[in-house]
Design goal:
The chain is α/β, with parallel strands linked by helices. It has eight helices and ten strands.
Length: 300
């Protein structure tokens, strides 16, 4: 069995990437299981998805803690402790990262074990071909090729099926297929040392303790950590204010859903980039066109 764990952020198409991979493998005759795991269901928040692919019925359930392949759709997650992208990484496993950096750079920076690190700038290809940064088809294409579980025909049919199910236009689907094939052709199949669980011998009885309230009910005692969670690394594009064109209308100030724009003493807007998530509502609402966008998806 091949176990794949995807990591990305809400809005990048990570759940759809896992579905495309699963559907493509299913069309090639494999038994498949795929499922997402949501945290905070909002754009930019970390999301995880899982695929199990086997020639025999898949009897495992739940999250994948010991994946054969970890696929990182957003490189900023490498420095996000809450995302826990390195969980289960091991010697002989594959660590795929959507980045413009060299594999050696990631190996050295994060002191990874003797795993195979593969890198490819999937986002760049997607933006240039599709015009948007949703990496569902392109990321799935890379993993299809690396695992050798699906050929081009199955991949194309899987992309059509899954993207039609979320009601994308045919033109957009065709562009995603074009971008996916570009990524597929850049990759090559990699031998995978799959992880095997040790069989459990005999039944195991677990004694379950009974806890009285408040220990036995869902009560939150820990203090909030919102101030510690800097969401600025969720951005793919950041808004930049051109003060020569700014007319100080204040529309961006009142439009920011996260309160990341304040006004200085001269009533010019100032963006707090530590928490700006890059939703670009300010860019869309600026009537003076004084706000520009800049690509920003770098971890370091």
């Amino acid at each position: 069995m091949i176990r794949v764990r995807f990591h990305g952020r809400g809005g990048q198409g990570i759940k759809t990437a896992s579905r495309i991979l699963g559907t493509a493998a299913f069309l090639e005759g494999y038994y498949v299981q795929d499922a997402p795991l949501y945290g905070a269901e909002r754009r930019g928040a970390p999301i995880t998805a899982f695929d199990r692919i086997s020639k025999e019925p898949v009897l495992e359930r739940g999250i994948i803690t010991n994946p054969d392949i970890i696929a990182i759709g957003d490189e900023t997650l490498l420095n996000d402790a809450a995302a826990n992208v390195f969980q289960g990484i091991r010697k002989g496993g594959i660590f795929f990262v959507n980045t413009h950096y060299e594999a050696s750079h990631i190996l050295e920076r994060y002191c990874l074990p003797e795993c195979k690190v593969i890198v490819h700038d999937v986002t760049d290809i997607t933006i240039n071909t599709v015009g948007k940064a949703s990496v569902s088809a392109t990321l799935a294409a890379c993993i299809c090729r690396i695992t050798g579980t699906a050929g081009k025909e199955a991949l194309i049919n899987a992309i059509k099926k899954e993207l039609k199910s979320i009601e994308l236009k045919d033109e957009t689907i065709d562009k995603n297929i074009e971008a996916a094939i570009l990524c597929y052709d850049k990759m090559s199949e990699v031998p995978i040392e799959t992880y095997r669980f040790n069989p459990v011998s005999g039944p195991k009885i677990i004694a379950v303790k009974h806890y009285l309230p408040p220990k036995g009910v869902a009560v939150i005692y820990a203090k909030g950590n919102t101030k510690k969670r800097k969401t600025g690394n969720w951005r793919l594009f950041k808004p930049c204010i051109n003060y020569e064109r700014c007319v100080r209308c204040g529309i961006c100030f009142v439009s920011c859903p996260d309160g990341c724009i304040s006004l200085d003493t001269d009533n010019y807007p100032v963006i707090e980039y530590a928490n700006c998530k890059g939703c670009l509502i300010c860019y869309e609402e600026c009537s003076a066109k004084a706000i520009e966008t800049k690509r920003e998806v770098r971890t370091w």
